Amino acid sequence: MANHSIKILRILLRAFRCVVGVWAIIAVAGCVADLDNDQSPLAPQPRKIPSQPSGVIAERLQIWPVLYPKDTTGDGLGDVIQCMVYLWSTNTRYQYPLFEDSSITFRIYPTGKVGDPEANPIAQWQFDSDEMKTHRTNTVVGNAYYFDLSLSDSTLTIDQLRRLDAVDLVGFYRKQDREAIRSGVSTIHLNSGGG
Which domains does the chain have, with CATH numbers? Predict the structure, then answer.
């Protein structure tokens, strides 16, 4: 009798598992969009960024570098820092990045040395108003500038750069009649092995 009860319990357990499995398949099938075989889901329409009004000025500088430089020489050491730059206003009537061509300077320092009065930059790149215009681009965020910063402009030799794990990148934006705006500090990883 006990064996018969165990067999019945096993059959009921299998039936319960089948019901739960079928229910799970039906629930998941309900989450799939009904599309024809040759149809792909529609992407949402991108939002239109309004035109930049006159009189809005840049008050914030944001740099978004790729954290590992691009190796353009094939020697295993990243030698070009790719960097996207956004200028922002604190004006609440326009909350998108701006185009405001003036001058921008990038500097890299040994890690932790940005702001140290005794630290000299390892490399510096400066772009004037005309050069900034050639670096304009548009992103999903809005107006931006894109720069490739070559480490061959560095004061260090290739061997010295190879011994560094990382450097700190900072940007300065200056309009003639205003004080320079400084970005936050971004750490750039020069090589994965540390030398």
Answer: 60-189 (2.60.40.10)
